[in-house]
Every structure is written in structure tokens, then in C-alpha cells.
Design goal:
The protein is of the alpha+beta class. It has three helices and six strands. The strands form two sheets. The protein has a four-stranded mixed beta sheet with strand order 1-4-5-6. A two-stranded antiparallel sheet has the order 2-3. A hairpin with a 2-residue loop joins strand 2 and strand 3. Helix 1 packs parallel to helix 3.
């Protein structure tokens, strides 16, 4: 499954359990990235009633790994208190969200 198809499946699954999911679309305008910028996670997930998480979606392939830009930006955001998780399947995404919602470690 491609990363794009996996993202779509994750969005559908998380919306089905009551989450607000906003894809982070990074587009280029005059040679500059817009949105949250290069390296930012793929999906913002608001988990009712009061939590949120950013999800970085990667396929299960061994070659699918974080870029240097992603590693750097994710570390900066985590130092600022932002929760970011990398998921490789719909099951992992739902497990992360469920753990956050019910106060367990993912």
C-alpha cells in the first residue's frame, strides 16, 4: 500500500471513531514550502475531549524511514511539548489514538 493510500485509510478509520483529522498538505509556492513546512508530520489528530497528536505516516517497507528534515523538525517540536508518533498501519494509528484517549502509553 502506498503512503498516500495508507494516509487515506488512517483518516477514515480515525474519523470513524470520532476524531478530527486534518492532513498537513505541504505545497510549494514560488519555490517555498507552505503549510507547516518540510519535515512536518502528515496528520494532525484532535482526540475528543481534549487531546491531540501529530502522526507521521510511513509504509511498512524497510526503506520507508524519516528524512533528516523530519528527524530534526520532530525533535524540535517534541522539545516544545508537541506529541508526534510515527505509525505504519491503520491498526497502529488507532492504537496510538486509543492509548492517548484512555491515558495509556502507546
Amino acid at each position: 500500500m502506498s503512503e498516500s493510500n495508507l494516509q487515506s485509510a488512517i483518516i477514515s478509520a480515525l474519523r470513524a471513531i470520532g476524531c478530527l483529522v486534518v492532513p498537513n498538505v505541504v505545497v510549494t509556492h514560488r519555490g517555498r514550502p507552505t503549510g507547516c513546512g518540510t519535515g512536518s508530520p502528515d496528520l494532525f489528530v484532535a482526540i475528543p475531549p481534549q487531546w491531540s497528536v501529530w502522526l507521521e505516516v510511513k509504509t511498512e517497507e524497510k526503506t520507508s524511514k524519516l528524512s533528516a528534515e523530519q528527524v530534526k523538525l520532530h525533535a524540535e517540536w517534541r522539545r516544545a511539548g508537541v506529541r508526534i508518533e510515527t505509525v505504519r498501519s491503520v491498526h497502529e494509528a488507532v492504537a496510538v489514538v486509543t492509548a492517548i484517549r484512555f491515558g495509556r502509553s502507546a
